[in-house]
Amino acid sequence: MKQILQNKFLLLLIISITWGSSFILIKKTLPVFDPYQIGAFRAGLSGLLLAFIGFPAMRRMTRKDIFWITLSGLFGNFLVVFIFPFAQREVSSSLAGIINALDPVFTLILGGLLFGIRSKIIQYFGAVIGFGGALVLVYTSGSGSSQSHYFYILLLIVGAALYAISALIVEKKLSHIKSKELASSIYTIWMIPSLIILGSSGFFTEIDYTQTATLESLWALVFLTVVSTTLVMFLFFKLVQETSAVFASTISLLTPVVAVLWGVLDGERFTLWYALGGVLILIGVYFIREKKKDKQIEEIK
After folding, report:
1. Domain map of the chain by residue range?
2. pTM for the predicted model, two decimal places
3. Ordered DSSP codes for the chain
């Protein structure tokens, strides 16, 4: 286990496969649960599981730290758990995974705008290519569909931007906090509003849990929460803290591949335009990847 946590590329692979599978898991929960129930369950249960670490950790933190943790959690751990299932009601899981690959593009652009992070010309060139791929997806995925389809695509793009902001806050404002305490505090802070939303959504009163299909969706939701949302987030925060937000965001090179494979296996429509847009995004991400020597990953704090 120690060797795994010290190998940044192996960490990238584990996180990428897990998060790349999350899009198909969201798809499997949607026939039974609505986006509010899915998002609130993920954020609420994660908070319950981690509160025993989160509450003691926050007592040792400054108000400034708690402010940045709350903000990072709002963007990267609260809003997005509602955005993606809401958008995936109209957008395939494979396409959602491809669009999520824009994360490094937004990390680069927003890192310069919000935190003054300097980047190389070749990296900005990659950002232009990445946005070009996104435009291809926006204009071709909605052909023959209603105008609302474009709204859901743009919503996914906003979700990728929110992930980027969260990672930048972790890198620039919270690198001194242990990764397990950081992840636990984020979910603990947003646990209460999530449970309130879950309780008022009809999750406990309006769903028949005796049905086989309901139980299958519930198990998918539990796995999505415990593994993809909770456990892997520890690894992601550690990777961001000990390398950089840009390096960690290269997870987006692999997650769309995993998402597309799951989508194809599940019989989803996948066109040449999707492939073109996805390839352009991945080429852009390749150029964006940080060229500096990354920090050596040390033993978990």
Report:
1. 2-288
2. 0.84
3. -HHHHH-HHHHHHHHHHHHHHHHHHHHHHTTTS-HHHHHHHHHHHHHHHHHHHHHHHHHTS-HHHHHHHHHHHIIIIIIHHHHHHHHTTTS-HHHHHHHGGGHHHHHHHHHHHHH-----HHHHHHHHHHHHHHHHHHHHHTTTS-THHHHHHHHHHHHHHHHHHHHHHHHHHSTTS-HHHHHHHHHHHTHHHHHHHHHHTTTTTS--TTSHHHHHHHHHHHHIIIIIIIIHHHHHHHHHHHS-HHHHGGGGGTHHHHHHHHHHHTT----HHHHHHHHHHHHHHHHHS--SPPPPP-S--
